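About this split. The held-out portion is used to measure sequence recovery: a designer receives only the structure tokens and must propose an amino acid at every position. Recovery is the fraction of positions where the proposal matches the reference. Here is one held-out target exactly as it appears in the evaluation file.
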């Protein structure tokens, strides 16, 4: 467990996403959930040592890496309405079907059957919690996914930003909207966030250099896709961008194949969604 403030901490040793928590007088506010059962048990034990109490969990988006373990955290759930809407489209019982999308959960199989838990609270824009000395803002910050959110604690100058920035790995593009994502990242350079500790949902705290690298990478991806779209390129040509794009990222060499898969999958789905809408009408 890594402590940011006396009552605010995170853990990035579990496969999947970086999880966080705020220990407040009213209870624990949890940010995302581990994937594996043993990690969920460990994280719950850590949380119990920090006071336990009433728990509420917010999922920063609907990516399977961060929501597959939610039910086993035994907490009330708080979701943006677009995240809640997306989870309704998943099978009622998740049985670990391999998607080959380059998601972390695919490396943790078998995960066993998982049931989805309906959210206890759904919000449409932003929501503010007053649970003690901190004001906790949960803000809709789209880009990586339609319902992506940040947890912002202004008094502590800490914000958890989910997949808005990822460290030493390619971002997930399949459900993204890159122009909106770029505008979301620009927010981090405004005076409002100067001096903040910014916690990535995949790796922990990030600095200005990591944020800038993420911005430049996404900007380059967008330029490449726009060029191919103008040339009416095929999906195969767009997928072929993946190896060259991966060269722009500093990542562990043993994950080359896995991250190439992530980019290939993401590029294809992004291109089909944003540039080939006529495909929907053919089906």
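Reference sequence for scoring:
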């Amino acid at each position: 467990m890594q402590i940011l403030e006396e009552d605010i901490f995170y853990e990035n040793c579990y496969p999947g996403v970086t999880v966080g928590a705020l220990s407040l007088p009213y209870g624990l506010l949890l940010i995302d959930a581990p994937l594996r059962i043993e990690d969920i048990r460990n994280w719950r034990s850590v949380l119990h040592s920090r006071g336990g109490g009433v728990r509420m969990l917010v999922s920063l988006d609907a990516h399977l890496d961060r929501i597959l373990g939610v039910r086993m955290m035994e907490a009330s759930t708080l979701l943006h309405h677009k995240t809640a809407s997306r989870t309704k489209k998943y099978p009622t019982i998740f049985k670990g079907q391999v998607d080959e999308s380059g998601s972390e959960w695919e490396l943790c199989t078998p995960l066993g059957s998982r049931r989805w838990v309906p959210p206890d609270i759904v919000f449409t824009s932003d929501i503010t919690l007053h649970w003690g000395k901190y004001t906790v803002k949960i803000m809709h910050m789209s880009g990586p996914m339609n319902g992506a959110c940040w947890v912002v604690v202004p008094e502590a100058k800490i914000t958890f930003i989910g997949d808005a920035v990822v460290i030493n790995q390619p971002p997930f593009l399949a459900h993204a909207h890159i122009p909106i994502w770029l505008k979301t990242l620009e927010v981090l350079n405004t005076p409002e966030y100067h001096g903040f500790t910014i916690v990535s949902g995949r790796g922990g705290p990030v600095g200005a250099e990591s944020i800038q690298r993420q911005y430049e990478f996404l900007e380059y991806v967008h330029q490449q896709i726009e060029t191919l779209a103008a040339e009416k390129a095929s999906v195969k040509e767009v997928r072929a961008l993946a190896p060259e794009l991966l060269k722009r990222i500093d990542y562990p060499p043993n994950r080359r194949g896995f991250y190439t898969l992530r980019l290939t999958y993401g590029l294809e789905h992004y291109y089909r969604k944003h540039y080939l809408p006529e495909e929907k009408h053919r089906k």
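Annotator remark: The longest strand covers residues 19-24.
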